[in-house]
Input
Amino acid sequence: MLQTHLVDAVGVYHIPVTAPARIVCLVPSITELLFELGLGEHVVGRTSYCIYPVGQIQAVPSVGGTKKIKHEVLKALNATHVIVNIDENPKTMVEQIATYVPHVIVTHPLGPLDNLSLYRLLGAIFAREAEAEGLCQRFARSLAALRAETRHWPRRKVLYFIWRKPWMTVARDTYISHTLRLVGWETVPATATQRYPVVEINLALLAEADIILFSTEPYHFQPNDLEDFTRTYDCTSDKLLLVDGEMTSWYGSRAILGFDYLRRFADIHGQPYLSVGAGRDHPL
Output
């Protein structure tokens, strides 16, 4: 019987390593997770957006971005495993990598609880089961604390921007939306034909949102972007907020820190009685 912990997001069964692995990770949040699992010495390649852990990752060669890599550089690293993600990395690029790298591990967390299977998948493949279970315990404690404090908080509607020119947001079946829902925040619009839809800014959309969030990634929104938005769309500034995109969209070990961040952020900015890192490649 196959061990479910060893099956990735596209149903591929991965055999546990028996020799030292050479891992290239094309997913910034998972690169950080690999180091958290004690696999740093086996990470031989990364993207230019893999910036954690600071002080360790800088010594690892970059193969390019999340959407486009230098295949010659990746080939020269003699990787045994490449870790990719359905949302982060184009399918055609991943298919090309699979022609010369023996093992391509595909990930696709759709909600916070999927982090548990992600920890266990990598722990089982790379002989870090104990470290993975330790992360699972930390995750469970952090999530329980968040749920205990926020279970009676009022529900709010939020418009969450990930890009401009064009303006792009997140559908309700994305990891970000599921994460925001933990504090009672429901993303708008309610329906979308794409997971990361382009939206038209109009009075109806702005009026529907109690809070408008500008994420620091993948587009690196800054305070002047909020000021421009207020002027351009004649929108009141009291419900425009910058939010740390790493804390709301990164899975892996960062999700554990993200729960505490989101609790504090929502407590300060999300209650009705209040007025309320570097960008990556274009998400599509």
Notes: Strands lie at 23-25, 43-45, 81-85, 103-107, 156-161, 185-187, 211-215, 240-243. Confidence is low (pLDDT under 50) at residues 273-278. The radius of gyration is 19 Å.
